[in-house]
Specification:
Blueprint lengths: L4 E5 L4 H13 L4 E5 L7 H10 L3 E3 L6 H4 L7 E4 L8 H4 L1 H22 L2 E7 L5 H7 L1 E2 L8 E2 L15 H20 L2 E7 L1 E3 L11 H11 L3 E4 L8 E6 H13 L7 E5 L6 E3 H12 L5 E4 L9 E2 L4 H7 L7 H14 L1 H5 L3
Parallel strand pairs: 1-2, 1-4, 2-3, 4-5, 5-8, 8-12, 9-11, 10-14, 11-15
Antiparallel strand pairs: 6-7, 11-13
The protein binds nicotinamide-adenine-dinucleotide.
């Protein structure tokens, strides 16, 4: 069956807007629609971008099935709708569970009704915080201390606490698998590490790469929070364009490759510690800003995450092309181009 009608939920968010526009440009035989309640700061700006490309947005709340069921019939839903902040997830539990988990349930009910398929954007935050803490090793020299170990794959522990955000993503993954088992629904789950690039409106607790570059541009201070305040936490960072490439391949190959979960991230190609990111930002922006050390570590922080992309490479011959320096440069160029509008938002 041809995939003609595609709905991107969270289509006015960072990931959803980039995927919507990329697919609109690159899948000539498909119609792309978005569903987003425009609650995230910056989503209204993304909404205007979608309109320029002729992409309609349904301004519905994903947690309300009486709205979701009113959507037209789609062949595929790419689910990019969530409250993606780990810290917010313990402050606004009801909203996060309703959006991230009940939202997935509503999308699955709609998919069952339409006999459609789903590509779900999950997260590396499904893994147990304690196990990551135990897994991580340190480079000896204290001053240049860096958290290191091998990339993490699907076999890593998910059974212990992982944050309420992480739980909503893991529970959504499991619900998708149950719907697949019971109702023969076809799915792809992408468990993504940090994603970054243009059109990400970064905050302290979500979208740190974009925030880091922005603060360097406007010469305002930042904080290294946790793990003694040294800035040694390591994350892999995937360029949004690399993710868009993968989604396009997954849509085109859906009939052949489905009912699988993949780990997807910058991996060994693109990763950074906060301190390394600062150096890159200094080089790209030409600015140096004060960075305060805050020693206390959040119960939800992890010192390290690097994705093992082996499975996704094996199935799709895909791997990330862009390195962290490319991500910083591309995001910097976007922030500079739209500086006036962005300064009103973040
Ligand atoms: N950004 C990352 O680093 C990252 C990493 C791993 C996984 N993910 C996942 O990717 C997806 C997209 O993340 P993002 O970074 O684009 O986040 P985002 O906040 O930029 O986008 C989410 C969009 O969903 C919308 N939304 C929120 N609550 C809603 C509701 N109740 N009803 C309808 N719309 C609602 C927001 O307005 C926003 O535009 C999420 O599922 C997230 O868990 C993101």
């Amino acid at each position: 069956m041809k995939i003609k009608n595609i709905l991107v939920t969270g289509g006015c968010g960072f990931v959803g807007s980039n995927i919507s526009i990329f697919l609109k440009k690159n899948l000539k035989n498909s119609r792309i629609h978005s569903m987003d309640n425009l609650s995230r700061k910056g989503s209204k700006l993304n909404y205007k971008r979608l309109l320029k490309y002729g992409i309609k947005n349904y301004k519905y709340d994903i947690s309300l099935y009486n709205l979701v069921r009113k959507l037209p019939k789609f062949d595929l839903i790419i689910d990019c709708c969530a409250e993606p902040s780990v810290e917010t997830s313990r402050l606004e539990i009801d909203r996060v569970v309703n959006t991230n988990f009940i939202g997935t349930l509503n999308i699955l009910k709609k998919i069952k009704k339409d006999k459609a398929k789903i590509i779900f954007l999950s997260s590396s935050r499904v893994y147990s915080i304690n196990e990551i803490n135990k897994f991580v090793k340190y480079k000896k020299n204290l001053k240049n201390k860096l958290f290191i170990n091998k990339p993490i794959d699907l076999k890593f522990d998910v059974l212990q606490p992982k944050s309420i955000y992480g739980l909503t993503k893991l529970a959504s993954e499991m619900l998708i698998e149950e719907f697949s088992y019971a109702f023969n629904l076809k799915y792809i789950i992408n468990r993504c590490g940090v994603i970054s690039g243009p059109w990400q409106f970064g905050k302290q607790d979500q979208g740190f790469v974009s925030l880091w570059i922005w603060k360097h541009i406007i010469k305002k201070k930042l904080n290294y929070i946790g793990y003694g305040g040294y800035g040694n936490q390591v994350r892999d960072v995937l360029h949004i364009n690399d993710l868009c490439d993968l989604i396009k391949i997954q849509v085109n190959k859906f009939e052949k490759i489905n009912n699988k979960t993949f780990c997807v991230g910058g991996g060994n190609t693109s990763n950074t510690s906060l301190i390394q990111l600062t150096k890159i930002c200094q080089k790209v922006t030409g600015n140096k800003i004060p960075i305060k050390k805050i020693k206390k570590t959040s119960i939800y922080d992890v010192p390290y995450f690097i994705t093992d992309n082996k499975l996704v490479k094996e199935y799709y011959d895909w791997k990330p092309k862009k390195k962290i320096i490319d991500i910083v440069k591309d995001t910097y160029n976007w922030l500079i181009k739209y500086q006036k509008q962005i300064s009103k938002i973040i």
